[in-house]
Amino acid sequence: MKFGIVFFPTVGPRDKPAPQYFDEALRLVDLAEELGFDHVKMVEHYFFPYGGYSPDPVTFLAAAAGRTRRVRLGTSATIPAFVHPVKLAGKLAMLDNISHGRVDAAFGRAFLPDEFAAFGIPMDESRDRFTEGVEAVKLLWTTPDAVWEGRFHRFGPVTLLPRPVQEPHPPVFVTSARSLDSVAAAAAAGHHLQTVPNAMTVPELRERVDLFRTEWASAGHAEPGRIHLTFPCLVAADAQEAARKGGFDEERNNAAISLAVRSWGSTTSTAYPGYEKLANIGRGVSFEDKLADDKLLVGSPDEVRARLERIAESYGDDITLSLGVHSGHLSVDDAVTTLRLLADEVFPKLAHDGA
Fold it and tell me: Is Iron-sulfur among the key words of this record (predicted)?
C-alpha cells in the first residue's frame, strides 16, 4: 500500500486568504517529500469554497515540482470538457518536463452545474467531451503530426512540444465517483482508477473496485491497473482531540459541498442520472457513521492504523491512498502533526509496506 496527500481546499476569502492557503500547502509538500510520501495531488474546481481556490492544479503542481525531486505530482483531476486538448496536453507535458517525469495525469468529467454554465458547456455533452478530450491529449503526447477530427475539436497536423518525459506518456487516471460505466470504460481503455469512498456506500465502493479489476484483467493490459482511493485524514496523539477536530473539519467540508451542489435542486441531465439527489447531500450520513465505515481516517495513531488494516483487507494492499490532510479549516500544524504521526507511528506498524 502506498500513501500520498491530496489538497482539496474547502475555504474561501472569509475563512483564509488564498496566499496563506498556498503557502501552507507548499509547506506540506516539502514535508511529504521529506517523509517519503508517494505523491502530491491537487483538484480542479471553480467559484465556490468547495475547491474554488484551485482552478488550475497544474499551476500548483509546477510550484511543487520546483521544490521537490522525488514525490509524484498528480492532478485530481483536470477537466477536459473545460479546455482545448492542445492546451491541456501542452500544460501537462510541460509539467512532466519540469518535474523530470513525475506526472500522474488524472482526468474527470466534472459534476457541478454552475461550472458547466460558466464555460457554456451543456452537461449532457460531458461524457462525450471527456472521452474525446482524453484521447486527443494522448494522441498529442504520442504522435508527431497529429491530426484530430472530433465532434468538438479539430486540429492538425501538429507536433506537440515539449513531448512528455515519460513514455509513451504519463500514467492516465480516470476519476469516477459514481458511474459504473465510467469505471468499466476506464479499465477497458487501460486508464487507472481514482475514486472517493466518501461519495458512496461501502458495497458500492467494493462493486467498483471489483469491476475495475475484472475489466482490467479481461482487457489483457500488460501492466497492473492502479487504484487510488481518497480519504480525509486527521491523526492526533489523543483520540478525543482527533475526533473533535476531524468532526469539525467534516462539518465544514459538508457545508462547502452543500453550497456547491445547491443548483442540482433545479437541474437535470441525461449524463448525470440521479444527481438531483445531491442537492440534499448535507443531510446525509453522520460523522460517526462515516467513521464506522472507515470512510474517514480520523483518530489516534492506533485507531488510524486499524482503519488502514481494514481498508487493505477489504480492497487489497496494492491500492494507493490519497490523504486529504488540509482543507484549510484546521491549523496547518494539525496537518503537520498528521503527516509526522503517520510516518513515525502508523506506517511502520502496518502489516504491509507503508509510504
Answer: no
Residue 191, φ and ψ in degrees, nearest 5: -100, 135
Would 108 be classed as within a structural domain? yes
pLDDT tens across 161-216, in order?
999 999 999 999 999 877 788 899 999 999 999 999 988 889 999 999 999 999 99
Residue that has been written with the C-alpha cell 492538425 in this structure: 156
User: Confidence class of residue 354 from pLDDT cuts 50, 70 and 90?
Assistant: very low
* pTM metric for this prediction: 0.94
- Cell match 488502514: residue? 308
Cell digits of residue 173: 487516471
Query: Residue 355 in contact with residue 38, Cβ under 8 Å?
Result: yes
- Separation between Cα atoms, residue 214 and residue 218, nearest integer Å: 6
Classify residue 104: in a domain, yes or no. yes
Neighbours of 38 (CB within 10 A): 21
Q: Dump strand ranges (E) for the chain.
A: 2-7, 39-42, 72-75, 103-107, 146-149, 154-158, 172-175, 192-195, 227-235, 297-299, 320-324
Residue corresponding to grid cell 491500492: 319
Q: What are phi and psi of 129, to 5 degrees?
A: -65, -40
Total domain count for the chain?
1
d(CA 51, CA 74): 16
Amino acid at 338: T
**Domain interval for residue 250:** 2-349
Domain membership flag for residue 355: no
What is the separation, in whole angstroms, between the first and last Cα of the chain?
7
Q: Quick one: cell of 244?
A: 473533535
Q: What is the pLDDT of residues 214-223, one digit of tens each?
A: 999 999 998 9
